Amino acid sequence: MIEDLYPALAALREAGPVHRIAGTDGRPAWLVTRYDDVRRAFADPRLSLDKRHAAPGNYSGFSLPPALDTNLLNMDPPDHTRVRRLVVKAFTSGRVEKLREPVRRVAGELLDAIEADGRADLLATYAGQLPIIVICDLLGVPEGDRRDFRAWSDALITPDPARPQGAKEAVGAMLRFYTGLIAKKRAEPGDDLLSDLIRVRDDETEGGADRLSEDELTSLAFLILLAGYENTVHLIANSVLSLLDHPELLHELREDPARIPAAFDELARYEAPAPLAIRRFPREDIEIGGVTIPAGETVLLSVASAHRDPARFQDPDALNPHIGRSGHLALGHGIHYCLGAPLARMETDIALATLLSRFPGLRLEVPREELRWRPTIRARGLISLPVTW
């Protein structure tokens, strides 16, 4: 299904709005396929992100310690409201905007390093590098501490069946990394997001009785770094591939890069970085698309299917930013809309504009059918993106 994702989803969507499937953890789950149902479910307060609302034995998912698991993706109001409000104080648009020129500089430096080669795996050398540099700079992660992060992320998102302990080892390494980094930042604060979050945690005048717990602080650092890296890698790489598949659009955007920000939403709709939203659990028996889902069972919202729903999008299997489509769900919807959406947009816009400008002859180095997607439904990402110019 991974290689032929959209035909498989189209068949499911046509057959019905909700299906009983094997979930990402191998246990039974309910897959919601149609746009209107998916969008409503995003904002339905009866669908909880808190795993405590899962029925016994219904869900396993990632096995994370509380210091990494107490994050916004496992919270409902009022805790979600409290933590998000405190994070917003540190994650300001002004801080993100200050990164625009540094992002442009880093993108240029990454392309400088490969330009003379005439060919590269763009995923490994560019799309996979820019987001980790940017999010680590934002959080204040020292350069020497960044080298293992991609391996940790891959071990969680795409575990190796030959190394069943790999994910557990990655979790342990990440926990040591984040607790150590926070200790360093407490001792020597800097002008970075993590230092600001620590101040919000430690200063009673910042949050009062509502301030972050220590587990919430560590979990936030984990979530911001993981989500800020993983999703943006795929936003950039998938967008490049989509443009290579549509050379006329690639030419248009190269000639007029000011149009790239407007094309972002269509690129994100066409090949979203996450085919599924984070799992949800009904607090009570609910009906979606005429199907009753019992309380506590796992509900998966298929963003990838919703984005190709002809009832919502005209000619949905075509990439066409000229139509002016709106309403994609690639960055979420409702109270769980991605906190880092402005940063992801800015990074993707700059990454594309810089690449198209520098390498006007950009093209795939291998036949399109040889490209492979990562073997997971958790993320829509390429294994590699070999190009030449």
Automatic annotation (TrEMBL):
One Pfam family recorded for the sequence: p450
InterPro entries for the chain: Cyt_P450, Cyt_P450_B, Cyt_P450_sf
Gene3D superfamilies (UniProt xref): Cytochrome P450
Sequence intervals crossing the membrane: none
GO terms, molecular function: heme binding; iron ion binding; monooxygenase activity; oxidoreductase activity, acting on paired donors, with incorporation or reduction of molecular oxygen
N-terminal signal peptide: none
Record has Oxidoreductase as a keyword: yes
Keyword vocabulary terms for this entry: Heme, Iron, Metal-binding, Monooxygenase, Oxidoreductase
UniProt keyword Signal, yes or no: no
CDD domains referenced in this protein's UniProt entry, alphabetically: CYP107-like
Highest taxon in the source lineage: Bacteria
Classification via PANTHER family: CYTOCHROME P450 YJIB-RELATED, P450, PUTATIVE (EUROFUNG)-RELATED
Family named by the database record: Belongs to the cytochrome P450 family.
This protein's name: Cytochrome P450
